[in-house]
């Protein structure tokens, strides 16, 4: 009888508030592991089960009086828990990782500086609220465990320290701070070549640059993604396709992707410790020349059109200061729509944008001067995309979480736009560039995307280019000089910025040094950051080797030369 009563008491204790706390903490830990290691969601149950087994065996949180008290959870003689701040910072990082997949701290700092007003993606605001509530409950639950179990209380200071030093959020900040005292913070800057057109072709071609939001070439793998990339595969048959375009750090969001491909530099934020760090930026990378500056000097009329607001992340400022004549986003294009209610949370759907692009190209052709037009889509934007209604006739109705539907829709609309312009005779003597602005952020097929090597979309067609494939290790920095040479311009040593033309035999930085090495050098770079922002960044004494450097010269130290000599030529 005693054994039966004891068993019943033990069984009923499994449903006590103590176990509610332990179950919640186990779920929080399991969510952290699956998010960081990109494991599938079904791992939540076994990981939580393992935590609960340990809690049962070690009797975590067990006390003589097993009653739960909210007052005990949040107050005691010692009000402060060392783990509160480290846990809160981990919840911030988890939200970013769960939202974007791979967290680039440069993107966080830049958007704080450039402004995040007029953004879309309202579903992420809901996620932010849920993460905040879960984080607060986690602080309460962990505080209760610490104050009910002396073993956890003794370990808490060590655990708090481990949480701090392991948080990638803080690691990114400390790495940038370390750049100010690094031995060589000018490795990339020595390789910077000021963009310069030496000779223009007899007849200046037009250029149409289509940035397809997040539509990376990784989607071309039919085994993982079916026919989502099929429209672009059809377009590749008559284009010059560049395989192997990788993503360098500080180029993995829209503004950074456009600057990388038009300026040949990664977008390093304006600085971490200068006085105006969190004030709105009045300029975006004012210290470098970009595609618009060069083409503007050659007499081009330049236009930018995008479905989202140009106020977001400094897009309008960048294009205004780098030679573009007309810059239009959601606010400017909305009055031109037949149906002003046909919008998504970011702005225009791709079918509406492309209809307006057709009219823009028609007007540019009528102007007589050579022209350049840049258009940025929204269709494949993470997490689920914003497919246009026009795709329903081809693909059927959209399932709200089917990113592959959105990818195929955006790809088909891009192919359709080019064909419409060709039929209308509006692309004569025009180079068309179709490219992803960056690799996709976290989407429902994230596990499949990150299961192998990833690459950006880049293809060019028209303007006398011979269709084919060029397979080279490159980054989006190399698009800038490649585009200039594809247009027929002669440039300094096939280079512009940090990029190297993929139409030339010259080695790219990633071919010479490897992507991981470049990312490591980027973390310690200060001189290039100063160049980008024209002194907005805190000044730092540079090695004497810099004193005789000409703006358009690649200068290397003896160690650089030894490293480079070991690399094979292409």
From TrEMBL:
Top-rank lineage group of the source organism: Bacteria
GO MF annotation terms: hydrolase activity; transferase activity
UniProt-annotated location(s): Cell membrane
Gene Ontology CC: plasma membrane
InterPro entries to which the protein is assigned, alphabetical: Alkaline_phosphatase_core_sf, OpgB/LTA_synthase_biosynth, Sulfatase_N
Domain Sulfatase N-terminal: 205-488
Designated name of the protein: Sulfatase-like hydrolase/transferase
């Amino acid at each position: 009888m005693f054994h039966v009563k004891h068993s019943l008491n033990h069984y009923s204790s499994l449903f006590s508030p103590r176990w509610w706390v332990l179950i919640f903490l186990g779920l929080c830990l399991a969510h952290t592991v699956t998010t960081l290691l990109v494991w599938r969601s079904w791992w939540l149950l076994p990981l939580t089960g393992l935590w609960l087994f340990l809690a049962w065996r070690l009797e975590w949180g067990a006390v003589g009086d097993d009653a739960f008290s909210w007052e005990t959870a949040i107050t005691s003689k010692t009000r402060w828990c060392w783990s509160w701040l480290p846990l809160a910072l981990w919840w911030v990082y988890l939200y970013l990782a769960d939202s974007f997949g791979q967290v680039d701290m440069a993107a966080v700092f830049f958007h704080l500086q450039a402004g995040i007003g007029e953004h879309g993606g309202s579903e992420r605001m809901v996620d932010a609220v849920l993460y905040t509530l879960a984080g607060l409950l986690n602080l309460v639950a962990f505080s209760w465990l610490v104050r009910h179990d002396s073993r956890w209380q003794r370990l808490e200071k060590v655990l708090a320290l481990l949480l701090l030093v392991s948080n990638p959020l803080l690691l990114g900040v400390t790495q940038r701070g370390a750049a100010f005292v690094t031995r060589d913070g000018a490795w990339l800057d020595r390789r910077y070549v000021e963009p310069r057109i030496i000779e223009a072709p007899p007849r200046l071609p037009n250029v149409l640059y289509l940035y397809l939001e997040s539509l990376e070439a990784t989607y071309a793998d039919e085994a993982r993604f079916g026919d989502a990339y099929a429209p672009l595969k059809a377009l590749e048959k008559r284009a010059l396709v560049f395989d192997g375009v990788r993503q360098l750090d500080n180029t993995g969001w829209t503004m950074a992707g456009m600057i990388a491909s038009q300026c040949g530099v990664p977008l390093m934020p304006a600085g971490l410790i200068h006085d105006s760090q969190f004030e709105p930026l009045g300029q975006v990378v004012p210290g470098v020349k970009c595609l618009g500056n060069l083409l503007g000097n050659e007499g081009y009329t330049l236009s930018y059109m995008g479905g989202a607001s140009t106020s977001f992340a400094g897009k309008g400022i960048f294009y205004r200061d780098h030679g573009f004549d007309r810059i239009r986003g959601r606010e400017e294009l909305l009055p031109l729509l037949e149906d002003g209610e046909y919008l998504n949370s970011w702005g225009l759907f791709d079918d509406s944008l492309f209809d307006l692009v057709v009219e823009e190209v028609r007007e540019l052709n009528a102007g007589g001067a050579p022209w350049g037009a840049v258009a940025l889509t929204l269709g494949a934007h993470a997490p689920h995309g914003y497919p246009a209604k026009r795709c329903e006739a081809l693909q059927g109705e959209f399932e709200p979480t089917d990113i592959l539907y959105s990818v195929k829709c955006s790809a088909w609309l891009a192919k359709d736009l080019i064909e419409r312009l060709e039929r209308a005779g509006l692309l004569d003597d025009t180079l068309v560039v179709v490219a992803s602005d960056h690799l996709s952020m976290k989407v429902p097929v994230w596990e499949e995307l990150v299961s192998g090597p990833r690459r950006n979309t880049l293809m060019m067609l028209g303007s006398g280019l011979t269709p084919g494939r060029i397979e080279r290790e490159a980054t989006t920095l190399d698009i800038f000089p490649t585009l200039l040479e594809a247009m027929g311009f002669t440039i300094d040593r096939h280079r512009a910025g940090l990029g190297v033309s993929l139409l030339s035999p010259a080695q790219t930085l990633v071919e010479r040094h490897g992507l991981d090495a470049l990312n490591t050098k980027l973390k310690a770079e200060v001189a290039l950051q100063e160049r980008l922002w024209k002194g907005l960044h805190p000044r730092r004494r540079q090695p004497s080797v810099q004193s005789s450097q000409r703006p358009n010269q690649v200068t290397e130290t003896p160690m650089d030369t030894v490293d480079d000599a070991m690399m094979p030529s292409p």
